[in-house]
Write a structure and sequence with these properties.
Blueprint lengths: L3 H6 L1 H17 L1 E5 L5 H11 L3 E5 L24 H12 L4 E5 L8 H4 L5 E4 L4 H14 L3 E7 L2 E7 L7 H4 L13 H20 L8 E6 L4 E6 L12 H5 L2
Parallel strand pairs: 1-2, 1-4, 2-3, 4-5
Antiparallel strand pairs: 5-6, 6-7, 7-8
Helix pairs in contact: 3-8
């Protein structure tokens, strides 16, 4: 049940989806893979919305080059583990929630234990091998996956609800070339807001999720477009191709 303090803190949200919806947020546990450009604003907005438990995993330390977009971190945090910096700020933002930071590299050997008992996985990574690992884990454990990716002024987002919707491999069968890509902070903020919005809608069970749709954001043109996507019956992650590849 919500405390009087929580009723006051979330009063404007309760006008939208009632105490039942706010209690759903309070009871939810969301896993955020990455405490960087996408993970920072996602975590902030889920924290202020009252998501009761957040687990953030990242193995990097804060560097000067991060600070144009990774808004959980400050100049004084340089050299600190990102998860320590993130947890500190999030607990200041909302002391009524539980925030756990884990400094580790997400790998096949530990991913299932990391996401055990979570209600959603936020893909805030910056490389496709790890994104595919999150996708595989979401599929096998039937956990919703909220994908986001950015490059320069452009970004994309989609929501995956196993086993009903197209998975990440259905949409992107092959990873893009590995590169150190340019990025501006506002692009990370825009896509992260879409991801956080999707998480909140999923938890409180309202609105239409971004499933079987890929949102594309062009910041230079200030234009958002949408591509319809379908499950690929021969997908190597969720379709018949899985058996052929042995995944």
């Amino acid at each position: 049940m919500l405390s009087e303090k929580e009723r006051e803190r979330y009063r404007r949200q309760i006008l939208l989806f009632g105490e039942e919806g706010q209690n759903r947020l309070k009871d939810a546990h969301v896993f955020i893979a990455g405490a960087g450009g996408l993970g920072s604003p996602v975590a902030i907005y889920l924290a202020v919305a009252g998501v009761g438990s957040l687990t953030i995993v990242d193995n990097d330390v804060v560097e000067l080059t991060n600070l144009n977009r990774q808004i959980l971190h400050r100049d004084r945090d340089r050299g600190r583990p990102k998860v320590d910096s993130a947890v500190e700020k999030l607990r200041e933002i909302n002391p009524d929630i539980t925030v756990r930071g884990i400094q580790t590299t997400i790998q096949e050997r530990n991913i299932r234990s990391l996401v055990e008992d979570v209600d959603g996985i936020v893909d805030a990574m910056d490389n496709y091998p790890l994104r595919y690992l999150l996708n595989e884990t979401a599929l096998s454990m039937q956990i919703p996956l909220f994908h986001g990716a950015i490059r320069g002024f452009n970004g994309q987002a989609t929501t995956i609800i196993p086993p009903r919707t197209a998975c990440l491999r259905c949409i992107f069968p092959h990873p893009p070339p590995v590169e150190v890509f340019p990025v501006v902070g506002v692009t990370a903020g825009y896509i992260a807001m879409v991801q956080a919005n999707e998480v909140i809608k999923y938890i409180v069970q309202c609105g239409e999720l971004l499933t079987n749709r890929l949102l594309l954001w062009d910041g230079l043109e200030s234009r958002a477009e949408e591509i319809k996507v379908d499950k690929n019956v021969s997908c190597c992650s969720c379709g018949t191709g899985r058996e052929e590849t042995g995944i």
